[in-house]
Structure formats: structure tokens, C-alpha cells
Design goal:
- The chain is α/β, with parallel strands linked by helices.
- The protein has one domain: Pyruvate-ferredoxin oxidoreductase, PFOR, domain III (Pyruvate-ferredoxin Oxidoreductase, domain 3, 3-Layer(aba) Sandwich), CATH 3.40.920.10.
- The protein contains six helices and six strands, in the order E-H-E-E-E-E-H-E-H-H-H-H.
- Helix 2 links the parallel strand 5 and strand 6.
- The radius of gyration is 15 Å and the shape is globular.
- The chain starts with a strand and ends with a helix.
């Protein structure tokens, strides 16, 4: 079973992102489950959503305490919430930012992680460019498709088409595609660095 925890703020599409991830996993032939964890449901408040994927039926229902991957939609949460709590040592971290892990003050924390498991994507900028709204969930979904190969970009694009229509769907698909390409470049650079 692969478990993903998504951290963001109300209004950033955290719950929708988890739902679309589970749809994409389902389209890829996996069993999937997505659910939110709400505190105060106001815009800007911290929100957490979860997604589980497996090749067999998923019976668990509790929140994910030891995720295989963490997606952080809002980097301001790094200093407000324990976003990395329980993350497995070989886990993936995907952050919506233009900064490096060192620039965010995370250099020491991530020094034992595999370089190709530490990824950043300017998801808010991509959303503004393609959709005209600062909602990073869909670009991050495209970026997630590039790491680990758990869901395909085609499945993500299809899930976006299920959730949205017309120009909004096309814009979101373009944002997801560009984020996917950014992560593929980062992973290739990390692998080259590892082999150097």
C-alpha cells in the first residue's frame, strides 16, 4: 500500500486534489481511497487530505500517520504544522515552491533522503499561468505522476477531465503536463548527480 498525505490551506483544492489522485489511481487499475481531515473549515486554515493506493481492497479508514509521500501545497505551513510527522525515511517530499530545500531551511532534515525523492514545483505559478487562479492542487497532481510511477500522466489528465470541463479542464491539463515535465527534469538531474 502506498499512502500520501497532502497539506495545504482551505481554498487551495487540497481535498479535490486527493480525490483526483484516487480517481487517477483507480483508472490505472489500483484500489484507491481519498478522504479529508477537517479542523476549522475556513479559507486559509490548515487542511489535510489523504490518499491510499493498493493492488488489493483497502479496508483502513484512519488518517495516515506514516505516509510514503507528502505533498505540501503551501510552504508557509512548514513552520506552522508538523508536515513531516511520520514520513518514512525512503519517502517522497513534493513542495509547491520555487526555492530549494536548503533555501527553505530543510537542508539538514533532508540530508539522508534520496535526492530524487525531494522535489519542488512552482505549482501556484503554473496554476496562474494556465488557469488564472492560484490553486496549486492540479499542477502538484501532475508532478506526483512523475515521481514513483504510481499514477500515469494520462490517468491524471483523464481525472481532470472528469472533474472539470471546457477551458478550465484544458488549462488544468496543461498545468499538470508542465509540472510533470518539470519533475521529470529534476529526477533526471538528481540521478545524474547520484551517478557522478
Amino acid at each position: 500500500m502506498f499512502q500520501v498525505r497532502i497539506h495545504g490551506r482551505g481554498g487551495q483544492g487540497v481535498v479535490t486534489g486527493a480525490e483526483m489522485m484516487s480517481i487517477a489511481a483507480f483508472m490505472g487499475g489500483r484500489h484507491a481511497q481519498a478522504f479529508p481531515s477537517f479542523g476549522s473549515e475556513r479559507t486559509g486554515a490548515p487542511v489535510v487530505a489523504f490518499c491510499r493506493m493498493d493492488d488489493k481492497e483497502i479496508r483502513l479508514r484512519e488518517p495516515i500517520m506514516q505516509p510514503d509521500a507528502i505533498i505540501i501545497q503551501d510552504p508557509t505551513l512548514l513552520h506552522q504544522v508538523d508536515v513531516f510527522g511520520g514520513l518514512k525515511k525512503d519517502g517522497y517530499i513534493l513542495i509547491n515552491t520555487t526555492k530549494t530545500f536548503a533555501e527553505m531551511g530543510l537542508g539538514d532534515f533532508v540530508k539522508d533522503f534520496k535526492a530524487d525523492h525531494l522535489l519542488t514545483v512552482p505549482a501556484t505559478e503554473l496554476a496562474m499561468k494556465h488557469v488564472g487562479r492560484p490553486v496549486p492542487n492540479v499542477p502538484l497532481l501532475g508532478a506526483f505522476a512523475a515521481l514513483g510511477g504510481l499514477i500515469s500522466l494520462d490517468a491524471v489528465l483523464h481525472a481532470i477531465g472528469e472533474k472539470f470541463s471546457g477551458a478550465v479542464a484544458k488549462g488544468n491539463q496543461a498545468a499538470a503536463r508542465e509540472a510533470y515535465e518539470i519533475v521529470m527534469q529534476q529526477e533526471n538531474q538528481a540521478k545524474e548527480t547520484n551517478h557522478a
